[in-house]
Amino acid sequence: MQTILHKAATRGDANHGWLHSKHSFSFANYYNPERMNFGVLRVLNDDQVSGGMGFGTHPHQNMEIISIPLSGDLEHKDSMGNTTVIKEGDIQVMSAGTGVQHSEYNKNKDEEVKFLQIWVIPNKQNVAPRYDQITLNKADRKNKLQQVLSPNKEDEGVWVYQDAWFNLTELEAGKELEYTFNMEGNGLYVFVLEGSITAGDHVLERRDGLGVLNTDSIKLKASEDASVLLMEVPMQL
């Protein structure tokens, strides 16, 4: 097993006043040649947006864009005609394909919205743009894996144009589970949202990330109550 450890404090830090973002990989003004991506996982931004503020209308092309709200309400509008709000418990996916424009704003004036912005490089170019969002049942991830994203339309969760699988889990202190890879040659990026876990030989704390390669499974054990996002992705761009 090969591992790549990214401690929370080593992430890029961009504070624009209205937006405070931590970048696990190179993004915008944060450039680290050793932190460009993890396989097709290109962007993992941990964003906090002030009340009433947000990202104005801007374009994307040929990228799978996933948003996972952690708290607050995020209002989405796009050139496909979608106007909606996503909140904690939801997951949003947008295939930019041939091109789409969208905006994301904090719907509330009196509280921050916190969310993960994730970009995955697709395995199909110039597809028709599409949008989807679902609401997850948090109880379905207590001490077990809840699949929230896959390549398959008929599977649980949203789907993307890539051989990628995302899972969430809420592990109680002392509980353990094993993650088994879906596809040979894929890597797994473990991202701790809250709490602390042991993943293989590594102790991971809040917002630490661990890339896992050259294995077909890994065991996770919570040293305290923990919330974890697992992102399995192809390593070949």
UniProtKB/TrEMBL annotation:
InterPro entries: Pirin (IPR012093), Pirin_N_dom (IPR003829), Quercetinase_C (IPR041602), RmlC-like_jellyroll (IPR014710), RmlC_Cupin_sf (IPR011051). The keyword Iron applies. Binds 1 Fe cation per subunit. GO terms for molecular function: metal ion binding. Residues 13-120 form the Pirin N-terminal domain. Keywords: Iron, Metal-binding. This is Pirin family protein. Its cofactor is Fe cation. The keyword Iron applies. Fe cation binds at residues 58, 60, 102, 104. Residues 148-233 form the Quercetin 2,3-dioxygenase C-terminal cupin domain. Belongs to the pirin family. It comes from Leeuwenhoekiella aestuarii.
